[in-house]
């Protein structure tokens, strides 16, 4: 791990999800900012979904915050994807990153340039009366549209994180005023439906947890 690059991430004003992903890359990186973890490992380290992670990676790449290079095996087949963090980048800033991220999301339903056949005037499909429409290639093609930026959690994720998350909420003063069980049920429901302030607290919890885990790893290294 590169503590120097991780500290750059911690010191940035990025939103929690973007910061978690940047720090996750830095956690795998050497002091030159290079690493080649799988996308699955990055998503697991940052505690985000694959689609969220891919969108932010593409946003980072579009802004020059990271560069990627495909590595190949001796037989010519694809191997790992090399990530190189550009610590000199001036674009590691919340507004720029979120704008780039939103641009990726806008085109989430667009795939590689291809031809689509459409019937004219609603007539039955017939090869003689079809015209062709070109769809422009997107920088963010191939990304899933579901579960973007932790808009909500599914039941499995709630079960996985809830105990620690609820303890975190208690530690910051979010406590039950009447029935604890009713309070727990309400928070679980908020996570499942993507309640704004609850999800903001959840992202803060993930950031706190990542920082804590990193400190523990450093102490035992």
Task: Describe what you observe in this structure.
- The chain has 221 residues and is an alpha+beta fold.
- The protein contains eight helices and five strands.
- The protein has three domains: 3-106, Winged helix-like DNA-binding domain superfamily/Winged helix DNA-binding domain (Arc Repressor Mutant, subunit A, Orthogonal Bundle), CATH 1.10.10.10; 109-142, no CATH class; 148-220, no CATH class.
- It has helices spanning 3-11, 16-28, 39-46, 50-62, 94-106, 155-171, 180-193, 196-220, and strands at residues 34-35, 66-72, 78-85, 114-119, 130-135.
- The strands form two sheets. It has a three-stranded antiparallel sheet with strand order 1-3-2, with helices on one face. A two-stranded antiparallel ribbon has the order 4-5.
- The longest helix is centred in the last third of the chain and has 25 residues, at 196-220.
- The model is unreliable at 109-150 (pLDDT under 50).
- This is Helix-turn-helix domain-containing protein.
């Amino acid at each position: 791990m590169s503590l120097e690059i991780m500290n750059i991430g911690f010191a940035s004003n990025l939103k929690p999800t973007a910061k978690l992903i940047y720090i996750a890359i830095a956690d795998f990186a050497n002091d030159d900012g290079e690493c080649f973890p799988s996308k699955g490992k990055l998503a697991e380290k940052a505690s985000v979904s694959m689609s969220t992670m891919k969108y932010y990676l593409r946003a980072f790449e579009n802004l020059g915050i990271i560069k990627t290079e495909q590595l190949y095996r001796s037989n010519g087949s694809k191997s790992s994807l090399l990530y190189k963090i550009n610590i000199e980048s001036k674009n590691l800033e919340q507004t720029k990153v979120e704008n780039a991220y939103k641009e990726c999301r806008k085109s989430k339903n667009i795939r590689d340039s291809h031809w689509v056949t459409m019937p004219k005037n609603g007539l039955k499909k017939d090869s003689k009366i079809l015209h062709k429409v070109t769809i422009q290639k997107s920088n963010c093609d191939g990304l899933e549209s579901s579960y973007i930026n932790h808009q909500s959690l599914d039941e499995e994720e709630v079960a996985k994180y809830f105990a620690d998350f609820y303890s975190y909420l208690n530690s910051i003063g979010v406590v039950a005023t009447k029935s604890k069980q009713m309070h727990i049920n309400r928070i679980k429901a908020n996570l499942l439906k993507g309640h704004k302030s609850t999800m903001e607290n959840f992202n803060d919890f993930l950031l706190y947890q990542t920082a804590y885990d990193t400190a523990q790893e450093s102490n035992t290294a």
